[in-house]
Design goal:
It is a single chain. The protein has 513 residues and is an alpha/beta fold. Among the domains are: 91 residues, Urease, subunit C, domain 1; 115 residues, Diaminopimelate Epimerase, Chain A, domain 1 (Roll). The chain is 31% helix and 23% strand. The strands form three sheets. Strands 6, 13, 14, 15, 16, 17, 18, 19 and 20 form a nine-stranded mixed β-sheet that branches. Strand 8, helix 4 and strand 9 form a beta-alpha-beta unit.
């Protein structure tokens, strides 16, 4: 196959642009001057001036959870408690008897007037139907009385918070480990539910140009979900799967030495949590506030144990203290993981002290960030981190320091939409307001490298994926125009036309109008 009459953006600095691209089987055969002899009788696709980029990688997504969320009560964007309750009430009116009401996306910091959710408020619209509503950051859970009753008072878990009223009674909000413990015990989805939702999720992700993801739902059994999708022929993107730190013994009991799987699905890394989040006010801070989920010593032990079996660690860290503790742990264990050429990462890295920012590059620890979080979180950050936001979502500063950035969505916290993430990184705003901390904007090419190239490097695939070069996998996305040829404020108008994975069209095969 030859794609011609368009702009080919290879993301390789030595040969950045081509006018045609030849594909043989699953791989790229070459560009202009090569394709004439690469294929005996190639199909020719007229790009019609469109632009081809390497396929988008989402370096941080909870894929089955995001897919399930498409079918649940959506509370994103609610501006008050009453608006959130109205959406729940509408769903409750059509709820099947005996089934849980599940939802997600509320963020009380966005509500006006300011008020926190309670079980009593939820009871008014749900009655005896148990309801469990995850916060937008997935670190808080809002329950009604019927849901709380299922726990028989078993709510407290180390590393978590049970919010209580003046009488000592649970308000209906659980945070961190308490939220996750309740969710896993009482409202965990079945594998069948996740597979069904993920089938549809694959199509939507492909329609947005996604050809690979780094999944964070290993704790939820996502590996089995993706295996089933692969066996039935419905796995249409490449998956780099995680394994939860709290089940490390189970991983180490297997006779494995590093990532294993195939070109589509690999179990590759261990995922840990240092702290909570900004929205739940549980991020661990240098001022002593926040929730510690994993200590620095515990993380260091995890890094060593995982590294000795060939697995890198990806650790969630939001607050400045959590990031410092994580960096300290990677520094203390540097000889162990660096000697094995492992590629560890800190997920989010949302608030960094000036002293810690250059340490990512110095240690060789990647910053796995989410460009969309900065403009989405700006109001909360100003409220809860006032006076500190010069070090928040500091993407440009990290790049200037030499750090490697990989961009993801953190879906379903933000939407799984890599192009929207690229635009957020370049524009630093997602609404009509001026850019928030514009000094931290990234250039378009930097945003694309973080979205297409660097995630492939983190999986050890830098010589096989992430660029449009001969011998690389034919994973690509076709855009309706060359994004380098439009004004920055027009970037959000660029649309995905088609997506190819391994030489096969997985979204909207040509010809195109």
């Amino acid at each position: 196959m030859i794609l011609e009459n368009g702009v080919i953006r290879t993301l390789e600095p030595s040969v950045p642009i081509g006018r045609a691209l030849a594909i043989a089987g699953e791989r790229i055969a070459g560009g202009v001057g090569v394709h004439e002899t690469a294929l005996a009788s190639p199909d020719v696709v007229d790009l019609g001036g469109r632009c081809v980029l390497p396929g988008f990688n989402d370096a941080h997504v909870h894929f089955p959870t995001w897919a399930l969320a498409q079918r649940q009560i959506r509370l994103e964007g609610t501006r008050s408690l009453d608006e959130a309750l109205a959406r729940v009430a509408e769903a409750a009116a059509h709820a099947e008897p005996g089934r849980w009401l599940r939802g997600h996306g509320w963020r009380s910091g966005d509500w006006s007037p300011e008020e926190e959710p309670t079980k009593e408020a939820l009871d008014r619209v749900t009655g005896a139907t148990p309801a469990a509503l995850m916060a937008r950051d997935y670190h808080s859970l809002w329950l009604n009385s019927a849901a709380l009753a299922t726990a028989n008072g078993d709510l407290e878990v180390a590393g978590g918070v049970v919010e209580r009223d003046g009488r000592g009674e649970p308000t209906g909000v659980l945070r961190e480990e308490c939220a996750w413990h309740f969710r896993d015990r009482h409202v965990r989805p079945t594998e069948d539910e996740m597979v069904e939702a993920s089938r549809a999720g694959m199509k939507l992700a492909n329609a947005r140009g996604v050809t690979a993801v780094h999944d964070k739902d290993g704790w939820l059994g996502a590996l089995g979900v993706f295996q089933r999708l692969a066996n039935e022929g419905n796995l249409s993107l490449r998956v780099w799967e995680s394994h939860p730190k709290d089940e490390l013994d189970a991983l180490l009991a297997l006779p494995l030495h590093g990532a294993f799987g195939n070109d589509l699905l690999r179990l590759g890394y261990v995922k840990a949590f240092m702290d909570g989040t900004l929205g739940s006010q549980t991020a661990r801070m240098l001022d002593g506030t926040g929730v510690e989920i994993t200590s620095g010593d515990e993380l260091a032990e995890t890094i060593v144990r995982a590294a000795e079996r060939g697995f890198p660690v990806a650790v969630h860290a939001i607050g400045d203290r959590a990031n410092r503790d994580a960096l300290d742990a990677f520094e203390r264990t540097h000889d162990v993981w660096a000697s094995r050429k492992l590629r560890p990462r800190i997920e989010h890295a949302q608030l960094l002290s000036a002293d810690d920012l250059p340490r990512f590059a110095q240690l060789g620890v990647a910053a796995s960030v989410q460009f969309s979080h900065a403009p989405s979180d700006r109001d909360l950050a100003e409220r809860f981190w006032g006076g500190k936001t010069d070090g928040a979502y500091a993407y440009h500063s990290l790049l200037d320091s030499g750090a490697l950035l990989a961009n993801g969505s953190d879906a379903p916290i933000e939407e799984l939409d890599p192009w929207a993430g690229v635009c957020a990184g370049v524009l630093r705003t997602i609404d009509e307001r001026p850019a928030w901390h514009p000094e931290q904007r990234v250039a378009l090419e930097e945003a694309l490298v973080a979205t297409c190239v660097n995630p492939a490097w983190l999986t050890g695939d830098e010589r096989r994926r992430g660029k449009l070069l001969p011998g690389y996998a034919a994973d690509l996305v076709v855009l309706d125009r060359d994004p380098f040829g439009v004004e920055p404020d027009e970037l959000s108008d660029v649309r995905v036309v088609a997506t190819m994975l391994g030489g096969r069209w997985v979204h909207n095969a040509p010809p195109w109008d």
